[in-house]
Design brief:
alpha/beta; Rossmann fold; 3 domains; 4-stranded antiparallel beta sheet; 40% helix; 15% strand; globular
Length: 582
């Protein structure tokens, strides 16, 4: 099994549940308890070899320096780690004094640096500890967590990410929440990385390069972290470390628990935790002045932005704002995330990968917010490719999903065009050996390579269609018919026929169509008195995958159908006779 497909062993969550937490905590609360303890245990294991030096430096300077000036000294004492603990305790030593476990544990927590204390605050860890104390379980919980070996020699950072994700998935399964709001399966991320970063492989291998990666709905941080690893380990494979690009990761997350995990992982792996922010990306954009080279996201599907409506509507009226192109319906904010990311494209060139469901492709009539946003994206020539994914790839949904790839630096051969790739069929996935939530299918490395080959080939075929940008646009024509009352045609003040709103019809015709010729050939022969109201004409854009990849299946011969019906009738008659005989 490859590293990307490897599943972590998290059986300890059931052991802790059975031995410690059962009866005191509900099923849907287990994750709230275990996750912060796993974060603390990971740090405790990593700090094992540097604790003595950190404490020595702390005792030397604690009375002489304020905390902000003490931090760099203690980080240096910790061997360059971004976190440390100045207390006299470790998780293991806390077990030496059962009678003082609460006091000593709080002292141990306060010994962590400010970033760790902020993480624990977002986990609302004080409430968890208070409940453990109230139920007399704190000592047992610390003992149970100490049995888990999370030293880097046993679990590297790559696998630690898996552990976090699997714990979240299990916890959310227990509470019937949507795990997919917090992280994306790694096979999907691997495909996104391939198509986002590989086209820039020559640039990324240039010495002295600095690049940024951003996720505005980052969950636990997996996308930006895996994106960085892909560039360093795959795109830049074989280069000496000093020639590889400097990659800075950024992200924002609304869910407190997910933010706490993302910041924990950034701290543990040496990333700048200032680039991981908590809050609503729409109303509290912590990177308002930043632009990014690469952006990856899997924003929540069909989630309302009603509570943010006042703020977002106001910004949509500003020509320099993120949402000036249009507003989607309040019940689904996916296209808001897309606009948010497009507004942050680095001017020298950016590439974006975004997972959506089908709604942003075709929801909304001509003149609607959704259609206007699609028009803005396509007419600006930012949409490069959309890949239709197999069903049942995600933990929390089995619906059709798509990845949009966008850029403001299309290659000359792709300019003015959009490639659609249908990877939903059986050629591009296999069934999981065991289901994980709704995830019953997976993409192997071979499947990802096959999809990438279709993308890079940029040719028409069974799984690939290439269209000019305006192929997705259409005129929406309004066809009117005269109003009659008591058998007489009603006229307006100008003496023109008055339109009957009940007979009003809409006709969608492709952009570039000769409207007059279409009307004469397709409408007038059926409705001779009709006319077009040109003032009501609108331009719409939609991307209909089903239409583009539809394959006609001929019906079986009538004789064959008749034979099947006769056989079925005979089978039913036999069953009825058997029942009556009983």
């Amino acid at each position: 099994m490859s590293k990307e497909q490897q599943q972590p062993n998290v059986k300890f969550i059931w052991q802790i549940t059975d031995d410690v937490l059962r009866d005191a905590f509900k099923k849907n609360e287990i994750g709230d308890v275990v996750l912060p303890f796993i974060v603390i245990r990971r740090m405790d294991c990593i700090l094992e070899g540097v604790n003595a030096e950190v404490r020595a430096q702390f005792e030397k300077f604690a009375d002489k320096l304020e905390e902000t000036k003490l931090v760099p000294i203690l980080r240096k004492a910790a061997g360059g780690l971004k976190f440390y603990n100045t207390s006299l305790h470790t998780l293991a030593s806390l077990q030496d004094e059962p009678n003082y476990i609460e006091i000593n544990f709080n002292n141990y927590l306060q010994g962590f640096n400010p970033e760790v204390r902020d993480i624990l605050e977002h986990f609302q860890f004080d409430k968890i500890v208070a409940r453990l104390v109230k139920n007399g379980l704190l000592y047992e919980m610390i003992g149970a967590i100490c049995k888990i070996d999370l030293h880097t020699q046993a679990v590297d950072n790559h696998d630690m990410g898996y552990v976090f994700e699997e714990l979240i998935r299990i916890a959310n399964e227990q509470s019937n929440e949507t795990a997919g709001e917090h992280f994306t399966p790694r096979d999907v991320v691997a495909l996104m990385n391939r198509l986002v970063f590989l086209p820039d492989r020559h640039t990324l291998r240039q010495s002295g390069l600095i690049r940024t990666i951003y996720d505005p709905a980052m969950g636990t941080g997996g996308m930006v972290n895996l994106g960085k690893r892909y560039v360093l380990d795959e795109v830049c494979a074989g280069l000496p470390p000093e020639q590889k690009p400097e990659l800075m990761t950024y992200g924002q997350e609304l869910n407190e628990q997910s933010y706490a995990i993302a910041k924990s992982e950034a701290l543990i792996t040496g990333e700048d935790t200032e680039n991981i922010r908590h809050g609503n990306s729409f109303t509290e954009d912590h990177f308002a002045s930043k632009r990014f080279h690469y952006m990856l996201a899997n924003p929540p599907y069909g989630v309302t932005w009603k509570k943010d409506k006042t703020f977002i509507t106001a910004e949509s009226l500003n020509p320099a704002g993120r949402f000036y192109a249009g507003l989607p319906r309040v019940s689904d904010g996916q296209l808001l995330f897309l606009q948010h990311m497009l507004a942050k494209m680095a001017r020298e060139g950016a590439r974006i990968g975004v997972v959506t469901n089908g709604s942003p492709l075709f929801t909304g009539d001509a003149g609607s917010g959704e259609s206007d946003i699609r028009r803005w994206i396509i007419e600006n020539d930012w949409l490069e490719c959309i890949v239709a994914l197999p069903k049942d790839l995600f933990y929390n949904t089995g619906i059709n999903t798509y990845i949009w790839f966008l850029t403001n630096k299309k290659s000359p051969t792709r300019q003015g065009k959009v490639q659609l790739i249908n990877a939903a069929g059986g050629d591009f996935h296999r069934s999981n050996k065991r289901s994980l939530g709704n995830k019953r299918n997976e993409l192997t490395a071979e499947h990802i390579a096959a999809i990438a080959a279709v993308y890079e080939g940029f040719e028409e075929g069974k799984h690939s269609k290439i269209f000019a940008n305006d192929a997705f646009g259409y005129y929406q024509l309004t066809v009117e018919q005269p109003l009659y009352k008591e058998g007489k045609q009603v006229s307006n003040k100008k003496g023109e026929p008055k339109a009957d709103s009940k007979k009003r019809d809409k006709e969608n015709v492709p952009l570039g169509t000769d409207i007059e010729a279409y009307f004469k050939a397709e409408v007038l022969p059926h409705v001779p008195e009709a006319w077009l109201d040109y003032e009501k004409t609108k331009i719409g854009y939609e991307i209909n995958f089903t239409k583009y990849f539809y394959e006609y299946e001929a019906l079986p011969p009538s004789a064959e159908v008749k034979a099947e019906i006769v056989a079925l009738e005979s089978e039913i008659a036999t069953l009825l006779n058997d029942l009556l005989a009983e």
